[in-house]
């Protein structure tokens, strides 16, 4: 080997080796993350017999949607055997208003805290930020009392209230940082043109807020949909959200353990957040970046 | 009674006095330029007039009525912002129509008005575009159109040309002047550019650190500056300043830089008084008529041709003076050059108070 060839070999060698190592590691990690999903999906399409007899990693030999139908419509949760569909709708009825209200309030707060500053605006924002760091557990008992006094214990409306209150800190933070970078001259100009508080918000600010609205909606949707602690604490029984119902389904100790039904139910529970990500995920990164650079 | 009257206007934030008692008056149809270095409070004053930042004390009257406390939209004032402040989500047409829409003017009337003002500013072909699709000069025109369309009683401009490149700046400057002459609008215009002020204003207010230094016509400000700050701020290259002492005869200055070369003063002063003589570059130079009595042969240190003029840096003792020659002059560097000093155009400042005394 000539000196020249050797030089080329050493120059090319490590970089190719590096790439193999990097991609190899990435593939291994990707597989580690994807494996549970793979097992969940394949298991949910297998019959119980096949699960008992077969290999956990094998593809279903005789795919069936029976477990999905059972999970949705007739699996037993507690004493009733109507599947998870009721609880799925509970979650929808909780998450949609909670996300909309907390996002709307966050946007209004951000607007006021940046463009209509008042004496003490920093303190108010500081307290809201502080709210983001209060652990869930510490507010459970006071919150239960408040809900009881409002007559909202064990209701979806009560859960909506809890999630709105808990979410406002985050949504306000998002919108405040986004609007901080929004040119105040535009607000001044609109004021001189005769637009009032809400007209400016609706006609000038909101049309430019799509990225941060998407961030907020995804963040809130994921958090509220996946919440278990508030759900199990404030809404048991008939009004329980999906996460609590799933736990009850999987943890029920009576009868045969139906892994395929459990898996199908779990996938159904995860589906809405997945859909939100797929539909709006592109904007999510863009919005986070915009906030990070400008704010 | 003037159309716009601003009286002892003050604004402070905390202990920081941004405006320290501003008095301004302007007649209908006038073009007032607020001129001063960055941070002197020009925008703050303009925003107080617009109603965007309330003053801490003082009064602002338009057409005899105080507008302090009136909402910005109720003052019948339009403003063109430095960043143009075009609404990014609306088309050019919607931008221009926005103030009309807010005033509740019906759509048909609005569109007629938009078309008229778009024709005046030659932006008719841009009405369906968004601000992001426009060049800087086009955005500037749209911003002016949005202000014009309301036919307000007062226009405010906050450094409207500072985001344009040099060539465009001259064009739009002429456009603003033409609009003023055509419409007879009353305008208050903020800039830190003395050329803009000179070319546009019927009246200039020079500000520094929240205080008015001088109010006057462009010619007054340029030829009879009230103090050394104004003298130095107006004109490029700036006025030559020679500190020194009034001679025994009271009619000459003994310059510190060159005690052997007494210079005649434009007016008699008390002997021994410490003063600063100011003379503009255009008052030092060639004198083809031979009418100017004071001539000096001064060594040329630097020659700066600009095309239309040639600026010379001349040595007078330990000081350097700038002189202006016609663009075709070719003075040799290093050699003495004979220049005439038109001392009748010179001004004198008190060395301590820095105010003009002659
Ligand atoms: N919100 C504010 N808080 C504190 N100081 C301010 C504020 N706004 C302006 N200033 C100060 O007021 C002074 C004048 O500002 P401004 O009117 O914008 O000056 P100009 O327009 O002449 O450049 C500056 O020194 C600036 O730092
Ligand atoms: Mg300014």
UniProtKB/TrEMBL annotation, chain A:
Annotated InterPro entries: MetI-like, MetI-like_sf
UniProt xrefs under PANTHER family: ABC TRANSPORTER PERMEASE PROTEIN, GLUCOSE IMPORT SYSTEM PERMEASE PROTEIN GLCU
Keyword Membrane part of the UniProt annotation: yes
Species the sequence originates in: Paracoccus siganidrum
Subcellular location: Cell membrane
Keywords: Membrane, Transmembrane, Transmembrane helix, Transport
GO cellular component, one term: plasma membrane
Cross-referenced CDD domains: TM_PBP2
Topological relation to the membrane, as annotated: Multi-pass membrane protein
Transmembrane spans: 20-41, 94-112, 124-144, 156-179, 200-221, 263-285
One GO term of the biological process aspect: transmembrane transport
Name of the protein this chain belongs to: Carbohydrate ABC transporter permease
Taxonomic placement: Bacteria, Pseudomonadati, Pseudomonadota, Alphaproteobacteria, Rhodobacterales
Domain ABC transmembrane type-1: 88-280
Family classification: Belongs to the binding-protein-dependent transport system permease family.
One Pfam entry name: BPD_transp_1
């Amino acid at each position: 080997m000539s000196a020249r060839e050797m030089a080329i070999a050493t120059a090319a060698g490590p970089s190719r080796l590096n790439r193999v190592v990097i991609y190899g590691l990435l593939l291994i990690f990707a597989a580690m993350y994807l494996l549970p999903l793979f097992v969940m999906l394949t298991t949910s399409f297998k019959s119980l017999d096949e699960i008992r007899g077969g290999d956990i990693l094998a593809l279903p030999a005789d795919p069936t949607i029976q477990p999905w139908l059972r999970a949705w419509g007739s699996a037993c949760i507690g004493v009733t055997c109507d599947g998870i569909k009721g609880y799925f709708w509970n979650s929808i009825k909780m998450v949609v208003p909670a996300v909309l209200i907390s996002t709307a309030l966050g946007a209004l707060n951000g607007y006021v805290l940046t463009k209509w500053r008042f004496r003490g605006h920093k303190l108010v924002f500081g307290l809201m930020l502080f709210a983001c760091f209060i652990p869930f557990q510490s507010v459970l008992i006071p919150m239960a009392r408040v809900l009881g006094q409002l007559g909202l214990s064990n209701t979806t409306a009560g859960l909506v209230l809890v999630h709105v209150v808990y979410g406002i800190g985050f949504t306000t933070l998002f919108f405040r940082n986004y609007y901080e970078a929004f040119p105040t001259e535009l607000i001044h100009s609109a004021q001189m043109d005769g637009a009032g508080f809400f007209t400016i918000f609706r006609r000038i600010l909101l049309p430019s807020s799509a990225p941060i609205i998407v961030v907020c909606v995804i963040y809130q949707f994921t958090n509220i949909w996946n919440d278990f602690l508030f759900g199990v604490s404030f809404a048991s029984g008939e009004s329980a959200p999906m996460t609590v119902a799933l736990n009850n389904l999987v943890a029920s100790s009576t009868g045969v353990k139906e892994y395929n039904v459990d898996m199908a139910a779990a996938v159904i529970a995860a589906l809405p957040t997945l859909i939100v990500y797929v539909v709006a995920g592109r904007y999510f990164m863009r919005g986070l970046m915009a906030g990070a650079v400008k704010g | 009674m003037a159309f716009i009257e601003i009286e002892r206007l003050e604004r402070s934030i905390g202990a920081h006095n941004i405006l320290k008692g501003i008095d301004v008056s302007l007649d209908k149809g006038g073009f007032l330029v607020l001129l001063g270095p960055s941070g002197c409070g020009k925008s703050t004053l303009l925003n107080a007039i617009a109603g965007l930042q309330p003053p801490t004390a003082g009064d602002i009257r338009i057409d005899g009525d105080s507008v302090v406390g009136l909402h910005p939209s109720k003052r019948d004032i339009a403003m063109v912002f430095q960043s143009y402040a075009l609404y990014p989500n609306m088309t050019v047409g919607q931008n221009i129509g926005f103030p009309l829409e807010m005033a509740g003017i019906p759509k048909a009337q609005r569109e007629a008005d938009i078309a008229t003002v778009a024709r005046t500013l030659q932006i008719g072909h841009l009405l369906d575009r968004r601000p992001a699709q426009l060049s800087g000069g086009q955005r500037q025109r749209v911003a002016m159109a949005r202000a014009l369309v309301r036919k307000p009683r007062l226009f405010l401009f906050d450094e409207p040309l500072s985001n344009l490149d040099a060539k465009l700046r001259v064009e739009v400057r002429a456009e603003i002047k033409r609009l003023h002459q055509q419409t007879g609008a009353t305008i208050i215009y903020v800039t830190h550019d003395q050329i803009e002020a000179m070319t546009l204003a019927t009246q200039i207010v020079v500000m520094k650190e929240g205080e008015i230094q001088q109010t006057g016509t462009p010619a007054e400000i340029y030829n009879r500056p009230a103090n050394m700050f104004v003298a130095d701020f107006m004109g490029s290259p700036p006025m030559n300043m020679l500190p020194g002492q009034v001679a025994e005869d009271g009619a000459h200055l003994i310059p510190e830089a060159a005690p052997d070369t007494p210079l005649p003063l434009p007016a008699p002063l008390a002997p021994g008084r410490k003063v600063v003589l100011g003379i503009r570059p255009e008052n030092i130079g060639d004198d083809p008529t031979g009418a100017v009595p004071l001539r000096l042969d001064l060594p040329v240190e630097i020659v700066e041709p600009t095309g239309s003029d040639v600026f010379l840096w001349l040595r007078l003792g330990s000081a350097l003076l700038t002189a202006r020659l016609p663009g075709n002059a070719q003075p040799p560097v290093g050699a003495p050059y004979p220049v005439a000093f038109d001392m009748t155009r010179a001004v004198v400042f008190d060395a301590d108070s820095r105010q003009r005394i002659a």
